Amino acid sequence: MKQARDRWRPAYVGIGSNLEQPAGQVRKAFAALESLPDSGFARCSSLYRSGPMGPSDQPDFVNAAAVLLTRLEPRDLMRRLQAIEDAHGRRRDTPHWGPRVVDLDLLVLGSLVMDTPDLRIPHPGIPERNFVLFPLADLAPYMLVPGRGSIRKLIAELGTSGPRIERLEQGAST
């Protein structure tokens, strides 16, 4: 029987920034994800500009998503994502939904469903966030989000609600 550490799973990571050249911050996050141990970077989505979800008196965000294959366990992967945030200047003493240099969210990890006080997978905000759904659709338009349904269904249900959003540039695979 295979150990959990030997199992490769696709991990979808949401990336956002609205400070210090946001598009550049998102690209730096892509590069940092490429160096995660026990992981292989697969693809990145297009970059999108969206209005802020929280307080409106802040700059627009640049959002994207990346998919990688990983053998990391969920909490270890999340710790490593937070270490990337910290290394790129993320401050944790800012208001909820406030401006940030970089934000990395573990959105989906294979078919895993996990609901603990410190980590929820899939990310509970996926259905309400067009700036998450559109990048995910770039990467996996037919993906089923565990317990939530297909990306296409979630986009259709969200409709035109959510922050305004526009594609900035096409994504690329590596």
Describe this structure in words.
Helices cover 26% and strands 28% of the residues. The protein is α+β, with helices and mostly antiparallel strands and 174 residues long. The chain has a single domain (4-169), classed as Alpha-Beta Plaits. The strands form three sheets. Strands 1, 2, 3, 4, 5 and 10 form a six-stranded antiparallel beta sheet that branches. A two-stranded antiparallel ribbon has the order 6-7. A hairpin with a 3-residue loop joins strand 8 (144-145) and strand 9 (149-150). Helix 3 packs antiparallel against helix 4 (151-158). The protein is globular.
- Which stretches of 5+ consecutive residues score pLDDT under 50? none
Determine the strand fraction and express it as a percent band: 25-35%
Report the CATH superfamily: 7,8-Dihydro-6-hydroxymethylpterin-pyrophosphokinase HPPK
Q: What order do the SSEs take from the amino end to the carboxyl end, as H and E?
A: EHEEEHEEEHEEHE
**What would you call the structural class?**
alpha+beta
CATH topology: Alpha-Beta Plaits
Helix proportion of residues, in percent?
25-40%
Taken from the alpha-carbon principal axes, the silhouette is: globular
In whole angstroms, how far apart are the ends?
32 Å
Radius of gyration: 15 Å
CATH class, named: Alpha Beta
The number of helical segments is 4
Mean pLDDT: 91
Count the domains: 1
- According to DSSP, the number of beta strands is 10
